[in-house]
Design a protein that fits this description.
This protein has 229 residues and is mostly beta strands. It contains one helix and 13 strands. The strands form three sheets. The protein has an eight-stranded antiparallel β-barrel with strand order 1-2-3-6-7-9-10-13. Strand 7 and strand 8 form a beta hairpin.
């Protein structure tokens, strides 16, 4: 009876172990990194004389990508997607309006309480991807480089010379609606370095009368990118 009890107990333990064991089934059609989200610090090039940034100029972006592997191992791929990005620039360019026309000036940070430019874009990224992934292990090295076309669908400048006065201007027509640029994302597992360089400028080269310069501002961003299956 003791032997039978021991055998029954061994069978029960084996059955319980089998229930708790997760068997990874290879998937020859797996895809990687279908969703993304990133945060980066924005610097600008093509600055007019006297231009300065303050506080933390930030870019947030997220979206979805369709991963299309190019080889049997599936470590090379292209990806086409759509996403949204938000940029908040805190800087010294003040936008004001006279008789329906916008004009621009650069003032000292000490001369205002708050001054910012908020940009909302619809993004269309196209990536070339290399990675060391396989169909059962999702911790891997990656290098993704891409080209992005962005459409500016809403913008707002907000100028507060003091605590009581606020000047808002929405959808400035003197900004480029279509932005293009290149980017790279590289890293291991969760942590990926991200860098973006804009090819064209935020503004259309608008004149700044007081210093005989033009307002352009080309965005350059550095930060982190996170991917989700």
């Amino acid at each position: 009876m003791a032997g039978a009890k021991g055998i029954a107990q061994s069978v029960a333990e084996k059955t319980e172990t089998e229930k708790d064991t997760v068997i990874l089934v290879p998937d020859p059609h797996y895809r990687e990194d279908q969703f993304y989200a990133g945060i980066s610090y924005v610097l600008v090039q093509a600055k007019p004389a006297g231009y300065s940034q303050y506080s933390v100029p930030v870019n947030l972006n997220f979206g979805i990508l369709r991963d299309v592997p190019l080889n049997k191992r599936r470590n090379y791929a292209i990806a086409l997607g759509v996403g949204y990005s938000y940029t908040n620039l805190k800087h010294s360019v003040v936008t004001q309006q006279t008789e329906g026309a916008n004009y621009y000036s650069i003032i000292s940070q000490a001369a205002f309480d708050k001054n910012k430019l908020v940009l909302h874009y619809l993004d269309f990224p196209l990536e070339l991807r290399w990675r060391t992934s396989n169909d059962t292990d999702h911790r891997f090295w990656r290098v993704y480089t891409g080209f992005k076309v962005s459409y500016l669908f809403y913008n707002k400048s907000e100028y507060k010379p003091d605590g009581d006065t606020k000047i808002k201007i929405n959808n400035d027509p003197n900004m480029n609606r279509i932005m293009t640029g290149m980017y790279v994302s590289a890293g291991y597992n969760t942590w990926n370095f991200y860098a973006y360089y804009g090819f064209n400028t935020i503004y259309k080269g608008m004149p700044i009368p007081e210093n005989n310069d033009k307002l352009k501002l080309r965005p350059v961003s550095f930060g982190l990118m996170f991917y989700i299956l």
